[in-house]
Automatic annotation (TrEMBL):
It catalyses: L-lysyl(4)-[histone H3] + 3 S-adenosyl-L-methionine = N(6),N(6),N(6)-trimethyl-L-lysyl(4)-[histone H3] + 3 S-adenosyl-L-homocysteine + 3 H(+). One of its GO terms (biological process) is methylation. Gene3D superfamilies: 1.25.40.970, SET domain, Tetratricopeptide repeat domain. This is [histone H3]-lysine(4) N-trimethyltransferase. It comes from Fregetta grallaria. It is an enzyme of class 2 (transferase). PANTHER family: HISTONE-LYSINE N-METHYLTRANSFERASE SMYD (PTHR12197), HISTONE-LYSINE N-METHYLTRANSFERASE SMYD3 (PTHR12197:SF288).
Length: 257
């Protein structure tokens, strides 16, 4: 039990290029980093290699911090998860001010609670039929909540993400772009500055625009992703290399038009 507790408190979730969870790993030196809901560093992975990247200027003597959890959650949910898994209460400025909690839970409560339950029930689909079921559920809820939930509501945002993923897996590219485009304003609101999740989302939307021959829009979106990813991932990261290649291809096409 002590060993299990140590692993639970000190492991890192390993993610792939699109920031999807693929496993867990122990990185002893990185386990020394303390938590902040508004950290000055982020962790990204290159395969199983963990990379610690600063996302803003750090003063001499300033402590390096990372977020142990998904910062998108409202303050009360973040506090519950931190206490449950790590046995401490966060007192960072973000938690003290309860910043953006109102936007995160905007809309009619009965509507977002229904969407929250639906999102929590989704398990990653393993077949086309399961993806079709997820998409149908998302479409039904998104349609029924028009006027009741803004896209800034975090559960509505997660529903849009699932709808986008479902459309991509079902090769419904135009619809995937529609849902992805709706997420960008909320990603900008909740992941300001340099954040890897926003960079990846911009890259995904830019790729959809590129594949639908929307080259001016794709180039603008990919440039935004590039500006963030050069900080969060670095120019040597494989995802950054793929982004630069797509951006260069888009620029070459536009020069010939």
């Amino acid at each position: 039990f002590p060993l299990f507790s140590q692993v639970t408190c000190n492991c890192f979730t390993i993610s792939n290029g699109e920031m999807q969870d693929v496993g867990v790993g122990l990185y002893p030196s990185m386990s020394l980093l303390n938590h902040s809901c508004d950290p000055n560093c982020v962790i990204v992975f290159e395969g199983y290699q963990l990379l610690l990247r600063s996302v803003r200027e750090i003063q001499i003597g300033e402590e390096l911090t990372i977020s142990y959890i998904e910062s998108l959650m409202p303050t009360s949910e973040r506090q519950k998860q931190l206490m449950r898994q790590y046995c401490f209460e966060c007192d960072c400025l973000l938690c003290q001010n309860r910043e953006k909690d109102a936007e995160k839970l905007a809309g009619e409560e009965h509507a977002w609670k229904e969407v929250k339950d639906a999102v929590n029930e989704v398990r990653y689909p393993r077949s086309k039929e399961e993806w079709e079921q997820v998409l149908a559920r998302c479409q039904n809820l998104l349609s029924s909540n028009v006027g009741h939930l803004p896209d800034t509501n975090i559960y509505q945002l997660k529903m849009l993400d699932w709808a986008m993923d479902a459309c991509i897996n079902l090769e419904s590219w135009e619809e995937a772009l529609y849902y992805g485009s709706r997420t960008l304003a909320s990603y900008r609101l909740y992941y300001p500055g340099f954040h890897p999740l926003r960079a990846v989302q911009l890259m995904r939307v830019g790729k959809l625009q590129y594949n639908q021959d929307m080259f001016p829009q794709a180039l603008e979106t990919l440039k935004q992703a590039y500006d963030i990813m050069k900080v969060t991932h670095g120019t040597d990261h494989s995802l950054m290399q793929a982004l630069m290649e797509m951006k260069e291809q888009c620029e070459a096409i536009m020069r010939t038009q």
